[in-house]
Amino acid sequence: MRVDFAQFAVTMLYLLPGLLLLAAVRVIEFRAIQIVAAIGLAYLVGVAMVTISSILLLVLGVPMSAPVYLVVAFVLSAACGGAILRLRRAEQLPLVQKPSLSKPSFSKPSLTRLRAWLGERSSAWWVAALTVSVIALFAIAGYVTALKAPVSGWDGWSIWARKGQMLFYEDSLPKEFFTSENYRFMHPDYPLLIPVWESIFFRFAGAPDTQALHAQFWILLVAGLWAAGFLAHRAAPAIRGSKEWAAAIWAPLLGVLIVTPGIHRQTLQIYADIPMAVFAMGSAFCIALWLQSRRSSYLVIAALLLGATANVKNEGLTTAVAVIGAMLLVRLFVVDGSRWQSFKPAAICAAAVAALAVLPWRIWLTLNDVHGLVSITDGLSPDYIWEQKERVQPSVGSVVNQLVQPGVWNFIPTLAVAIVLVCLIVGVGRRIATFYGLAGVLTLAAIIWGYVVAPTELGSHLASSSDRLVDGFAFIGAAAVLHLTILLARSGAEDSTVDRAASGATKPPPAHD
Amino acid sequence: MWNLFKSTLMQIFAVGMIGLAVGALLSAGIGAPKPRPVEGPRKFFKRITAALRQHAGGLGIAVAVLATFMFWTQAWGFWAARSTERSGYKNLTVEAAAYHDARLGNANMPFLNFVRANLADGQSYALAPAESRDDVFVRQWSSYVMIPHLLADEQEADLLVIFNADPESVDYDRERFAELVEFEPGYAIARRAQ
């Protein structure tokens, strides 16, 4: 019973500050339909806000407990709520939009009216509704399965659940564990987001229930897919003037993601790779939306999600660097129509926010003399990389082999490459396609770099990790497929308006679709 | 057979799209095509580029149709797999689920539970003999089960855990760890002398 309460309580703990932040930066308004649509993104943003703040407090030596985590969420929510109130006051708007008086706010439902309403629905609506319903059913089925799943992944218990339990039993950072040579195997230098996130659940559950913990990983995955659907809708709210058509395009793509065997299997291994990839997908999608719409609110969300990506694991840090690199390159150097982009500090600010999110843990590691397997000095030394050059080819081979396995990724990475190339050629969302392409290439390069500079036996290293380390690339690819497919479909319906909007020739779309 | 068919279809589609795109790129470049006469293969690729541009919307729809096909053909498999998993996990207790990976090596969970019960708050332990200490599974698994007790070196530990060895044959500081308690043959703990 308490575990069920914990599942609900921690979800609310993340949802509240997440939703308020989305409202504060005007990604959503306080309307029921927008709140429901944004729940997935709000959850991801909330996890990022609460866990990154908690890591800072832990590093500062604040003893953490369930009430303290509640206070953290409350303070973050209050800050966002305060920002919303100030905005509303400045614009002299009511906090909640009241329903129009000209329309009846409530009409009595009747079977005849329902039948008439259903009869008016288009075929696209039926496709979208049926697909979304089945996805929802799968999400629930996956949740029920996850609730009873056993702990069956080596790193899941040996690294992540171990640290999560340490933070459950100890109120402060257990320095003696992180600095002991006896615990080198648990990679004490790995970032703390997942252990903190797990320990928050354990504290509300009252015990380190690693069985029920699987459901938290499943909720995070479903939130990621929900967020992707919401962002896809924002990329093109209507095709041929119809929301149903747009939904009929993105819903099946989300469906493919939820049934993809590699994603489901890895989620229930409770490794950190899928959470990292979910945050990376959200951040890449938000940056691409920022490039498309010029609305800096998406950049704020992206910065937070990039901070979370970098705080999940070391590969998350390199993935975040790759995505930021792609964003800066596109923003600074890619020709927009007939002119070069003028320099804008927004992208630099977003990169700085993401970097700040990583800083507390890195400072703690330095102060306590905790080092990882790879020294950054060695890793970036051209001489050292040249010495390791024979590791490049097998690493590339293994990583590419993982990405093209049909039984694992459902061809999502291959499809992403194809769609990015097609968009570059046909000129639909070219800047966005360039961003996704660069982000993918840089992410892949970062994975290969990690293998090349690691002081490990390459064969076993690849065998034990290459199936997981490609998750970031695959999920960024999924964002590219969702985003660019819907832009392609819209371009056919609305001629070249998409590219004009994407390149900034037209005004940004209204704040709320 | 069905999976092979789906896989082949998807491969053909994706590779075909990449092929078209790369061909068009090589032929026309990314920018707007310059009006000049074209012949032979160039003309062929120019036509492809033009066709792609003309039917961009159709490509988007094609991807959505393909995704619909992929989703619905895998939907039943996904549902059936989750049902099978749920049936398999039905009687799994929280403890059995937590220690499921004990099967990966010689975990001896009853002994580890006994050790944990003998550790007071804040006490640490050491593993002996060296073979057990250096065994990757024993070291990682036992230290996982023992959280929040710290795995320490013998000189600093409050309790010595003798794992899979005859205590008589193990080399340890018998004066420091004077009180030996055998759990079962090969498994014992030695408490620090008061």
Order of helices and strands of chain B: HHHHHEHHEEE
Q: How many runs of DSSP E, i.e. beta strands of chain B? A: 4
Low-confidence stretches of chain B: 27-35
Number of domains of chain A: 1
Mean pLDDT of chain A: 88
Q: How many E-type strands of chain A?
A: 0
What do you see in this structure?
The complex is a heterodimer of chains A (513) and B (194). Chain A has 513 residues and is mostly helical. Chain A has one domain (2-90, 125-496). Helix content of chain A is 74%, strand content 0%. In chain A, helix 1 (2-24) packs across helix 3. The longest helix of chain A has 26 residues, at 66-91. Mean pLDDT of chain A is 88; it is low at 495-513. With 194 residues, chain B is of the alpha+beta class. Chain B folds into two domains: 2-90; 100-191. Chain B contains seven helices and four strands, in the order αααααβααβββ. Chain B has a four-stranded mixed sheet. The longest helix of chain B has 34 residues, at 56-89. Chain B is elongated and about 90 Å long. Residues 27-35 of chain B have low confidence and may be disordered. The chains are: A mainly alpha (513), B alpha+beta (194). Chains A and B meet through helix 6, helix 7, helix 10, helix 11 and helix 21 of A and helix 1, helix 2, helix 3, helix 4 and helix 7 of B.
